[in-house]
Predict the structure.
Amino acid sequence: MAVMRARRTTLAVPGSNLRMLEKARGLATDALFLDLEDSVSPLVKEQARANVIAALCEGGFGDRVVSVRINAMDTQWSADDLTQVIEQAGDKVDCILVPKMQTAAQLQQVDERIAQLEAARGLAIGSIGIEAQIEDALGLVNVEHIASASERLESLVFGPADFMASINMKSLVVGQQPAGYTEGDAYHYPLMRMLVAGRAFGKQVIDGPYLGIKDLEGLRVAAQRSAALGFDGKWVLHPDQIDIVNEIFSPEQSDFDHAELILDAYEFHTSSTGGARGAVMLGDEMIDEASRKMALVISSKGRAAGMVRTTSFDPEH
Ligand code: GLV
Ligand code: MG
């Protein structure tokens, strides 16, 4: 499983697009998923599945988190997607991404089927994780149950396009505020509810795509919105979106340095050498156990993103 690996950027790669399957190997994302669902026409589902299995077997995705998005559970393709992908390339897949997850029972069903397929292929039970897309009203209503239904679940992923359709939102522009809604953020409720459910059960929480590929400013606004709340990352659909999303979901260097300093200072001052104190001053700021926890969040994100601190702790100052 890849629970603590960074997922600032997750690249969506249509399984029917051979050029993108090839190109994805060289793009600087933390994660990617090879898609068999909505970016693939119903007419080429089987071909896309074969392409994805071939791409997995060929490898070359480095240390990225590699997922395959199967078709939704109520379609004629999902059972074969799961079976064939795991039977033929199960050792190359970190996670199965399940779209339109609506209930805990659905998640448990996928979990059990993966366990059977892992056993048949001689893989350790539990080696393949699950990512669950929450993208309709029923999924959101059940998100707490979904988040706690399986040890295999690594992340909850918001699906804004399907979600907007599911609740009849009066807009066609995915990720942007619907015209006429001037009082706040129309996405706050689903995002916050998913975030709280994910955090309650130790799962990563990922924001979905921003479909305006050319609108990089709009992407920035949407990414900042979920990053500020505490999301771990966001999907990207195009190479131009990658740097922006990586940047927004990484801590600022000064925040990372500061967080590392808080951790060192707190460890020192709470130790017997440092005086075994609980609340201490770091410069002008009072820090305590809660500050340590907040610092740990920033520092873990920075470390997972490969950041290096530029300052060091000196107990004399
Ligand atoms: C993604 O799957 C979405 O529906 O936004
Ligand atoms: Mg969707």
